[in-house]
Specification:
There is one protein chain. Helix 2 packs across helix 3 and helix 4 (about 145-175) runs antiparallel to helix 5 (about 180-205). The chain is built from six helices and 20 strands. The chain folds into three domains: about 5-50, no CATH class; about 80-110 and about 240-420, Efflux pump adaptor protein, beta barrel domain (Elongation Factor Tu (Ef-tu), domain 3, Beta Barrel); about 145-205, Orthogonal Bundle (Helix Hairpins). The chain is elongated. The strands form five sheets. Strands 2-9-12-11-10-13 form a six-stranded antiparallel beta barrel. With about 425 residues, the protein is α+β, with helices and mostly antiparallel strands.
């Protein structure tokens, strides 16, 4: 091998060593700021790279003779890291909690008008959707020979009255036994009963609406033959209308008759009303309790059978209104908020979400007054010192029935899995 190759290899090794192992001293040397101490350390590093032993007994940190030993600067003071965050002061206030469930609208009254006698329909049919007044004729059956039967019954009644009077006079004069008088009286009563039955049969020929409402089906067609029990029409009453839901047994004790309630139909319409019925017996299949809410429709019609999500007012508790973005998780996966403690250090507080509204989220689990970190909570941990910039808290506003509508969305996933039609 040529000598020049060996020298080149040694030069490359030396350069790599200086760049990798002695980089700080090399930088100082190259900048011209290194002193005798730096040159000595660099020289010793070079000798060590080629296997040369340093001078025995020599202090590697010692300066060359005649050079003053430099004084090491004092270690810099350790400053605690402070994180800038944005916070707001939150004050607890009482709110009403809501029991949320699924349900459906139901007509307050619904009846299927059926025939009580047989015969052919002779009235023109009324079409579904038509409004009917109480007592309005829906279907009329051909009377047939019923008027003749009524006339016969009345004639027999007149004959029975004459026989009864004659028997009574004979009995009083002693010319007839009491048994004959009793038989005449029985015949009279039987004839009167026959007249009443014939008149009732005549009244059954016309089927009338039992209350004012709307026809849900067409009335029986002209010429149709009706038998006893055959359907003439279905009448429903939609004003007032009610919401029907099924409450799980874990929530039933929180509901009382007379409590305010709100709901949102699938069409997006919001309604409100009052609880008018709460079942005392559970459905044996679902173990839920039927609850009925009478709605205030204010003249706007609501259809029967619409699916609805219901929020019923229940006993409340103190809660804080905070932005939804302020919620975070701790290392254990618990949902909570980061607070600013009295010593300006961050602290985690687990919370429970009560209600989600357009103004923010209502949570419990905090002290009556708390300073909540609303921006930067993800960049601090418990015990970290924070520099908090306070901002105004959200306006809680009045806790009105509209919050019951907001509660429907907030707890929709917690509603019982019962069919609306049950």
């Amino acid at each position: 091998m040529r000598p020049i190759s060996i020298l080149s290899a040694l030069g490359v090794v030396l350069a790599l060593y200086l760049v990798v192992m002695e980089r700080p001293h090399l930088v100082e040397f190259a900048s011209g700021d290194t002193g005798a101490l730096g040159r000595t350390a660099l020289a010793q590093g070079v000798r060590g790279a080629f296997g040369a032993e340093p001078d025995a007994g020599a202090d590697p940190d010692a300066a060359p003779p005649g050079t003053a030993r430099p004084t090491a600067p004092p270690p810099p003071a350790v400053t605690e890291r402070t994180v800038a965050v944005v916070s707001q002061i939150s004050q607890a206030r009482p709110i009403d909690r809501a029991v949320v469930l699924r349900g459906r609208t139901e007509a307050s009254r619904q009846v299927a008008v059926r025939a009580e006698t047989s015969g052919r329909v002779i009235s023109e049919p009324a079409r579904r959707g038509a409004s009917v007044a109480e007592g309005a004729a829906l279907c009329e059956i051909d009377p047939g020979n019923r008027p003749a039967l009524l006339a016969e019954a009345r004639a027999r009644l007149a004959e029975a009255e004459l026989n009864a009077r004659a028997a009574e006079r004979l009995s009083e004069g002693g010319f007839a036994s009491d048994l004959r008088a009793a038989g005449a009286t029985a015949s009279l009563q039987s004839a009167a009963a026959a007249v009443a039955a014939a008149e009732q049969e005549i009244d059954r020929l016309v089927m009338r609406a039992p209350f004012a409402g709307i026809l849900e089906t067409d009335t029986a067609e002209l010429g149709a033959l009706l038998q006893p029990g055959a359907l003439c029409a279905t009448v429903i009453q939609l004003d007032p209308i009610r919401l029907v839901g099924f409450v799980p047994e874990t929530e039933v004790d929180r509901i009382e008759v007379g409590a305010r309630a709100g709901g949102r139909l699938t069409s997006g319409r919001e309604v409100s009303g009052t609880v008018t019925f709460l079942s005392r017996a559970a459905d044996p299949a679902t173990r839920t309790f039927r609850v009925e809410i009478t709605l205030e429709t204010e003249g706007a019609p609501i259809r029967d059978g619409q699916t609805a999500e219901i929020g019923i007012q229940a006993s409340g508790s103190d809660a804080h209104l905070v932005p939804g973005s302020a919620l975070t998780l701790d290392d254990d996966g618990r949902l909570g908020l980061r607070l600013v403690g009295g010593d300006a250090r961050a602290a985690f507080a687990p919370v429970e979400v009560v209600r989600d509204t357009q103004r923010g989220i209502w949570v419990t689990g905090l002290p009556d007054t708390a300073e909540v970190i609303v921006v930067g909570q993800e960049f601090v941990r418990d015990g970290v010192r924070v520099d908090a910039t306070r901002r105004a808290a959200a306006d809680a506003g009045a806790d009105t029935e509209a919050d019951l509508i907001d509660a429907v969305d907030a707890a929709r996933d917690d509603a019982p899995a019962t069919e609306p039609g049950r």
